[in-house]
Amino acid sequence: MALLPALLAGCAALAGGERYRGDYTFGHEVNSFCPEINSECYWLGPNSNQAAREQLKKIYRDKTPGLYKPVCVVVEGVIDREAARDGFAADYDGLIEIVTVIGDCDSGVLIVPGDLNHRRWVLAERDGVPVDTAEPPTVLDFGERLFVEGRDGCQRFSGFTRLSGSEIVFSEVEFDRSGCSAGDLATTLFRDRSAWRARLVGDALVLSDGVAHLAFTPDDWR
Q: Where do the domains of the chain lie, and which CATH numbers do they carry?
């Protein structure tokens, strides 16, 4: 990025980017995005997709009565902290090249990596039935780059996660035991089906395949 920042940022934007939820602010002297994952804010870079720019402006007009008031949106983009910046952009932590605007946060329920990274989720309901709290907790523990570890009543497991549209996809999952029953969470999640529709409902992470429904609550301090 240090040698050819503008060119590399443009190529990265064309190739796609990370998914972020955060605040978009627009006005005569501001055109910025502040993702939830950190305390930084970025100026919209010159390589941002023009259609995405227009969609952001439309959401902004629809969701706010005036300028300079942030609106929560979900976007895909590439953050560039190294590119030279001048004018109003110089006051920000970097540039973000917006590739796609997924929607505003009120209508969009898509999971973003920041919702999962470095967070632990405990199974609270299965098919609408509360989980017995007397049993050892069933957990999904997400690390850096969505590496996931967890346990159910039968075994421990670990593997990789990626987000694809509205789905969360598990892959390369390894288990410390075999022969667990069909009722165990690991069997349901990874052996019967690896892709689940994922959404946030309040504070809950809900996974569904149209038949099974799993609701997890955050438990970052257990």
A: 5-104 (2.40.50), 113-218 (2.40.128.270)
